[in-house]
Amino acid sequence: MDQRRGGQPRSSIPAKRSAADAQEEAWVANEDRFVLKQAKKKAIIRARAGRADPIDLLAVTLRALDATRDGYDSDDDDGELPAVDPEGVFEGLDDMQLDELDKGIDTYLTLEHSRSNRDFWTVRFCCPLPFYLHTS
Fold this sequence. Notes:
The chain is mainly alpha-helical. 56% of the residues lie in helices and 0% in strands. It has helices spanning 13-48, 54-65, 95-111, 115-125. The longest helix is centred in the N-terminal third of the chain and has 36 residues, at 13-48. The protein is elongated, with a radius of gyration of 22 Å. 21% of the residues are buried.
């Protein structure tokens, strides 16, 4: 057993805590990846069914731009997905829909680990909305 000066044994508690913290951090990261993948799959399913929310349309657009397909299944066919102008998604939304879309973007920003995908959500959509997009 390791001993400190003066003959007292060193505590292994900090080492155990570090290992537990690392294990918990890895578990949370894996859970976040799973939740992100599920969110992307749901967006694709709703888009294919013609019932996509604005956040789904943005997620589907990102899928088309994401060369790594981070969080997407490689066997999904892009041909069945709607092509939309990301900025057009904001047009005609009321304040409640804009708030919901903003929360969805925040969720993707929280879950995304890919720098290019985070840039997509940040650069394109976290800027103040142009005045003409507000309907009220």
